[in-house]
Write a structure and sequence with these properties.
heterodimer; A: alpha+beta; five-stranded mixed beta sheet; 5 strands; 27% helix; globular; B: alpha+beta; six-stranded mixed beta sheet; 17 strands; 42% helix
């Protein structure tokens, strides 16, 4: 039995509305990766969230989505295989523009 | 011989002797500089002597739409307004949308150059080939919407397009802007340049049209562009419905929405109060620039007292930062009111908000007291004081007289350590991204030819995560020199010159911007470019603008940040712990100058680079060997 860790989940705009709040804490098994967390979220929030995350019929994230752990894009960590730690903040940002 | 896009004519207006002359636009200038900002920088460098007073008659105000303006290229009614900036003493260039840019083309002109100074307030009326100088005594002192309506009535033409200044420009506030309809050529104090010339307004009406060189090719390229826009995951669903305020939610999440004069970034994140959900409750409608199918600009109505009933076109993201985050104000209706008031008074919302936030920090630190503020309790978050101070700035009253010249000048006059709290680069107040968490964007601020400007090299890779030309770690300094050169040159050549709204580049064309511009330029104008040659135009303009600034005495030492960004790490949020140390900045600058082919120690473009760009004449003039 693995220990549980707590990870803070943050998002904005349409995904915030699906999650019902901009921030929440979730408990995951120690050693969970970003991929595991995404799978957990799809299980929790279903098709509505899945459509915001993945290209249709695949488990490939939509190209304009940004996933970050502690503020750093996961491409500069270990991608979807980035292992989450106790107290990490995982952020999902959809495309926006305008400044 | 121009086939399309260009009218081929420059209108030169001299206010001193009230003459108007028409000149031919040399085709090699069109080929090398495209239009818009390119023409502005080219004519400013060539026609101004170094060291002139930006508020003297020697300064020139150059209005230049691009070759796409006035055609059916979507989202292309943009105009670059260029002068020597009284705020920064650098090139002052900014762009505005609306209908005025296209109308100037319909009147027959690619460029309008305003010279000299009128003896008394006047406005200029341009109707095709007819130019009239009219007394403006009766509109001097009016707000910008009243001014435009009075002139429309007087000229008996409700569809005439007008660019004008408000009281701030008349009073030579160095943070005054130029307004057309409610669109602003907002930054760098260009409204003061217009005011210094006693020029209240320019009214334009044209009956012509803009030719297209190759119709069939144009239809094909335009069709591809419209498809890219339709396929964008954000343009019509987000930008058209909400506009730029989505960036409040985005930058707050990234921990880079600057707050309380950049002391509380990541801590004060008023998404619920002034972010998308809040501002959409004030939405009343949309505004469309000429031939724009998007309509990103939102009309919003304040609902609560004492601002109830005030309508603004906006506030845009930058204004939500300036009158929201920067001042610690989270009252959405006061921001709507301040936005509208700025448009009416002719003030740059960014510089005005930064100046007010600066004064608030000084007040909270005891550097300013109630005697200095005329009794205003200038604490962060006091929206009534913010609105009151905004009026004082425009009329140079009370503390506003100090802030009217921007935070750099104000901090020197105040003394007592105020300089440390003045958030500007080269005198230009900083826009709404705390670059301690977006380091390439920071380098663009430091090296922009206009001072601290988010639009001259916007790092969309860092702010929006767009992986073009490659993915970028916003929190790292590695590779940011080359990236900044790319962002500056591509954005200049594909948006600031042809001209095209930057939001189309960001949402729909990021991976094909230069290729698209080369194809569209050939279709519209008949002038042929490869994608590489398009980018080279951007490089040419950034080099010539740099030379203008070198001529004004700017060096590498001026490519820097306010001390706070280099010594105070962010204390909270998703960029916590980050800053850009002096060493980090120097490392980025070394890489940037190397990528640009500029001399490392001085930041001066090399002769080799200038010759390569066809700017040998400028190197000769500057005695660069």
């Amino acid at each position: 039995m693995r220990e549980l860790i707590t990870v803070k989940l943050k998002t904005i705009l349409a995904m915030k509305n699906i999650l019902g709040q901009p921030e929440l804490e979730v408990a995951l098994a120690e050693g969970s990766t970003v991929r595991d967390l995404l799978a957990w979220m799809v299980n929790r929030w279903g098709q509505e969230l899945s459509e915001q995350l993945f290209q249709p019929g695949t488990d490939l994230p939509l190209p304009h989505l940004r996933f970050m752990v502690n503020g750093r894009a996961i491409q500069f960590l270990n991608g979807l295989e980035t292992v989450l730690k106790e107290g990490d903040e995982f952020m999902m940002l959809p495309m926006v523009a305008g400044g | 011989m121009y086939r399309g896009g260009y009218t081929g004519k420059i209108l030169r207006i001299n206010l001193t002797d009230q003459t108007a002359t028409t000149e031919q636009l040399p085709i090699d200038v069109a080929q090398d500089f495209i239009g818009g900002a390119g023409f502005g920088v080219k004519f400013l460098f060539d026609e101004l002597a170094g060291g002139i007073d930006p508020l003297g008659p020697e300064n020139k105000l150059i209005f230049a739409p691009g070759p796409f303006s006035g055609t059916t290229v979507p989202c292309a009614s943009r105009i670059a307004v260029t002068a020597k900036s009284p705020l920064t003493n650098t090139v002052g260039m900014c762009l505005s949308g609306g209908h005025f840019p296209a109308e100037l083309k319909f009147a027959g002109y690619d460029v309008l150059i305003v010279e000299g100074k009128a003896k008394k307030p006047i406005y200029v009326s341009i109707k095709d080939g007819s130019v009239r100088f009219r007394d403006a005594g009766h509109v001097w002192g009016t707000q910008t919407s009243d001014c435009q309506q009075i002139i429309k009535d007087e000229l008996d033409d409700q569809n005439i397009r007008i660019a004008c200044i408000g009281p701030a420009g008349e009073n030579l506030s160095k943070i005054a802007c130029i307004i057309n309809e409610r669109r602003a050529a907002g930054r760098k104090g260009l409204g003061a340049v217009m005011g210094s010339k006693n020029l209240k307004a320019i009214a334009v009406r044209g009956s012509g049209s803009v030719e297209i060189a190759w119709d069939e090719k144009f239809k094909a390229v335009r069709s591809e562009m419209l498809k890219a826009m339709k396929d964008s995951p954000f343009l019509y669903s987000g930008m058209a419905q909400i506009g730029t305020p989505t960036n409040v939610d985005n930058t707050c999440a990234l921990g880079i929405f600057p707050a309380k004069n950049w002391t509380a970034t990541g801590e004060f994140t008023p998404v619920e109060q002034i972010g998308v959900d809040a501002i959409q409750t004030r939405k009343l409608g949309r505004y469309f620039c000429y031939n724009c199918p998007v309509g990103c600009s939102q009309l919003r109505l304040a609902k609560s007292a004492p601002y109830r009933g005030i309508l603004a076109e906006g506030p845009e993201f930058e204004t939500l930062y300036a009158f929201g985050g920067q001042t610690g104000v989270d009252d959405i209706d006061s921001i709507i009111a301040a936005d509208r008031l700025s448009d009416e008074l002719g003030l740059d919302t960014i510089s005005a908000g930064v100046a007010i936030g600066f004064a608030m920090e000084l007040f909270e630190k005891g550097i300013l007291n109630l005697a200095d503020t005329g009794g205003l309790e200038l604490n962060f978050g006091n929206h009534q004081a913010m609105v009151a101070l905004l009026k004082q700035i425009a009329f140079r009253e009370g503390l506003g007289a100090l802030l009217a010249d921007g935070v750099k000048v104000a901090s020197k006059k105040i003394g007592r350590g105020a300089k440390k709290y003045a958030m500007h680069i080269k005198g230009l107040e900083l826009p709404g991204y705390d670059v301690r968490g977006a380091k390439g964007h920071g380098l663009a601020y430091a090296t922009s030819y206009t001072g601290g400007d988010h639009n001259r090299g916007y790092a969309f890779q860092e702010i929006f995560g767009i992986p073009v030309p490659y993915e970028v770690d916003r929190l790292s300094i590695a590779g940011k020199g080359k990236l900044t050169k790319w962002n500056q040159d591509v954005r200049t050549a594909t948006c600031d010159c042809p001209t095209l709204c930057v939001f189309i580049l960001d949402t729909s064309l990021p991976a094909m911007a230069a290729e698209h511009t080369s194809q569209m330029m050939e279709a519209v104008t008949g002038l042929a470019y490869t994608a590489e040659e398009v980018v080279r135009v951007g490089e040419r303009i950034n080099n010539l603008a740099r030379l203008f600034n070198v001529r004004e005495g700017f060096t590498r030492a001026d490519d820097t940040f306010p001390e706070r960004l280099m010594t105070e790490p962010l204390q909270a949020g998703s960029s916590k712990g980050h800053m850009i140390s002096k060493d980090d900045l120097e490392e980025m600058l070394d890489e940037y100058y190397l990528a640009r082919g500029w001399d490392g120690p001085t930041g001066v473009p090399s002769r080799k680079k200038l010759v390569e760009l066809g700017l040998a004449y400028a190197a000769d003039q500057m005695k660069i060997s």
